[in-house]
Every structure is written in C-alpha cells, then in structure tokens.
Amino acid sequence: MKGRRLANALVILMLAGGQAAGPGCSDKEAGTVETWTIAEVIRDRAAELMAIPGVTGVAEGRTADDRVCLVIYVHTLTPALERDLPREVGGFPVVVEESGEIRPLGQG
Amino acid sequence: MKRQSITRLASLLILTLALAGLFMFQGCSDSEVSPVSPASREADSLVREFGSLNPRLREVMTIQESYTPSLMSSPEVIGTATTFTEDGEPAVLILVTSEKAVTRMPANLDGARVEILLTDPIVAMKGRPGGGGGGGGVSHTAIQTPPIQLGCSGGWRHDLANGYCCGGTLGSLIQVGGQLRILSNYHVFEADIVNGGNGRSASTGDPIIQPALIDIGCNAASGQDVATLVVSRALPNSNVDASTANIISGMVDPGGAILEIGTLSSQTAGAFIGQAVKKSGRTTGLTRSSISGLNATISVAYENECAGGSAFTKTFTGQIVIKNKASKFLAGGDSGSLMVEDVTTNPRAVGLLFAGSSTTAIANPIDEVLNHFNATMVGN
Known about the structure:
- The complex is a heterodimer of chains A (108) and B (380).
- Helix content of chain A is 35%, strand content 28%.
- Chain A is built from three helices and seven strands.
- In chain A, a hairpin with a 2-residue loop joins β5 and β6.
- The longest helix of chain A has 19 residues, at 2-20.
- Chain B has helices at residues 8-24, 38-51, 55-72, 99-104, 123-126, 186-189, 366-373; strands spanning 77-84, 90-96, 108-109, 112-118, 152-156, 160-161, 164-165, 168-170, 172-176, 179-184, 207-210, 224-230, 243-247, 276-281, 285-303, 310-323, 338-341, 349-356, 360-365, 375-377.
- In chain B, the strands form four sheets. Chain B has an eight-stranded antiparallel β-sheet.
- With 380 residues, chain B is of the alpha+beta class.
- Chain B has seven helices and 20 strands.
- Chain B is globular.
- In chain B, α1 crosses α2 (38-51).
- At the A-B interface, α2, β3 and β7 of A face β7, β15, β16, β18 and β19 of B.
C-alpha cells in the first residue's frame, strides 16, 4: 500500500508540475502563446493518468455547460481518488466518471 | 471472450433454477464436465456469491418454490423467481403480463416480501432462444435462412474450451479487394491463441458459424457455416479489436443488410460528441445511444481462449466512448456490432464496438478498422 501511495503521489506531483509549467499554454517561442488542444493533452498525459491505480481511461468530453474537458474514467470513485485526481489538466477542466471494469464484450 | 450480462432479472431466474438444480444433484459426480452456456456460468457465479452464505435467501427460495404451482395456474403469471429488494432483502419475484394482475398479487407470502414485475408475454422469449433480440421482435440469436443478415449471433466454430463456449456478433460486411468479408472483433473470431483447453487455436480457413455456440447449446452441428476465418492477429500490436472472415457464397446477404438497420451507406462518418448512434447486436438487438467521449485511451484485458487465462492487456488510443447506462446499449455478446449514425436510410458506419462496462461502451473508429484491412464498407 505504501508503494502504491508513493506512486500515486509521484504521478500527481508530475501532473501538478505540468500544470505549473503553464496550463493550456507553452512558451516555446518567446512572445507567442501556444494553446494545447485536448488531443495533445490526451496524447501527452494519458500514460501518467492511466498509471494511477483505479483509472480505467481518459477521453475528450464535454462538461455540463458544454465546455471541452478531459474525462477521467475510474473503476470506482473512492475518496482517495476524489481527493487526488487533478481538477484540471493542461488547462482543461477534468470530469471524473465511474466506469466499472471495461472489458471485451464477447460472451462465453 | 467474456461472460456476463444477461439482465439482472434473467440472472435471478437462473439463480433460482441453478440452486434448484444444485439441491437436486447434490452428491452427484463431477467427473464429466459438459460444456455449458454463459447463462449456466453466470448462475454458477451467483450461486457462489449468494446461495451458500445466505440462509434467508434459501428460506425465500423455498417459499417461492412452494407457491410457484398455484401462482403459475393464473394465465397472467409467467414466472417466479427469488430476487433482492432495493434494500437487499430476499423477496419472491412474480412476473405478470397485465396491469390487472399486478393488483391481484399478494404483498407477501409466508412472511417473504413480494415484488411484481410487469413484463412481455413469454412468447417474445421463444423467438429469442439465446436471450438476444431486438425491440422489433426480430431474433438476433436464432438460426437464419440464408442468406443471413448481420447484427446477429455468431462466432468461431471451435470456440469451446475449459467447459464453456463463447461467441459474439457478426457485425457487418466489408469488401477487401474483390472479396466480401464479415467484420467482427478479434476477441470474437480469433482470440484462441493457445492449444489450451480445446487442443487448437484459431486458424485461417476455420468456419465462422451462425448462430454462435452460446446460442445452440455449445453444439456446432446446430449452427451453419457462413464464412471462413482470415486470421490477421490485429491484437495485441495494432489499435483495433477487429477480425474478418470471407463469406461463403450464398450464405450472407451480399448487400450487407443488418437486422433492424438494413443496408448501409458505403461511406463512413466521423464521431462527434452528442452524436446519436445505434447498433444491432446479438444480445441487446437494436439499441440507441449517443457519443459521450472521443480520443479515449482505454486499457482492456484479454483472455487467451474461451474461459481461458490472461493473454495480454491492450491500451487502445483514439477510441470512441458511448453512453451505456445499465448496459442497455451494449452488453456481453454484442461485441462485433457495427455502430452507425442513427438515421433511417443507409446510415454511415461510425465505429466497431468491442468493449465496455455497465456505464460505458467503447468503439474503434471505423476508418481505422477499414484502413487496417485496406477495406471499404459494403453499402449504397
């Protein structure tokens, strides 16, 4: 459990670090502001988010007021996940949804 | 290759039957294990989960069994079962076919609470031997007179191992070069990659049958060969859970008609959030929903044969997410279904459905699937 908490904390620190570096923007070229797309955010951050125990997926979605958001799917929304998952990633708001186990849907 | 998702009601009915069977055959030898259908497998699980640990459940089952003959003497009562109330208490469930019958049922039986479920006449189930069917009364699990329409039960002819049989949906028709092929999932057609429990693995040329073994008592002789498998091993290395089979001449509608959807457009459509979609599949028939997520990264675990061991976990990227509340859009056995835009005439394909949960369904974008096979959709 300790190892898992440490891994969680590391991932969350990495995410927080990414946000601190400039949510939604980059300063690659002085004097210009480059906005990240949600696709770029997913491409760059999906692996970190998927490494959090209990996270089953990430996707582009829409908030209730129709803003582009990052959806983080979790197997079960535990208090720990609720506390630890970021509220925004790369400048996009995060919506957390319970998915249960996602599995192939053949039957046998 | 998964088990699950007959409805809760069906599960409980099976639980009742399964427990009855268990009591009847206690002490019998298990030296010969016959292949069983998924319903039996689910019942096994339920028995393990509830039956042996809950004395009150057994009491209510006894009450249910004692009253079943008198209840069933009413033509409006089509079944009984043991269920759980919302607060988790075992109760007797009575299935009736009319509103009037609801008011005539007792509130309790020998101290056991009674729940009433108003349902369709049982004749609807007769047309759906495997439990799958469309809202329009079309069976998606019955054997069809060739040429068959797709959106129906089907699978690898030898998909039987470890005492169980498996299957899914023959989803749609595509064209590769001049050849017409049925499109379904890797995990429906060719996920048997070890000799394991059946002494064979899926190979090019193997028959694809309709319906799937799960809908014909695991007996392939009761089905019909409609296509021959073209092994492509899309997983674990590519980003699509897809497989194809060359149609056998005369066995599949060459126009690619899908049950309750009809003929498609030969064009495809990109997914967008809020898009209305529908699909036609083995278990839930024709169902509708809407796109809730795009560009999804999702990890899915696969087995190495029917009821087999772990093969690999695949992380897909760029996937389509669809609302699937209570598995009403997509359930176990629907894998392989084609997701199309929800329009009446010649809908365009949007995705290949392959995974999900009780809240969420996942589809490969159809263009990525078609590109994988260098294929086009068959349609107008």
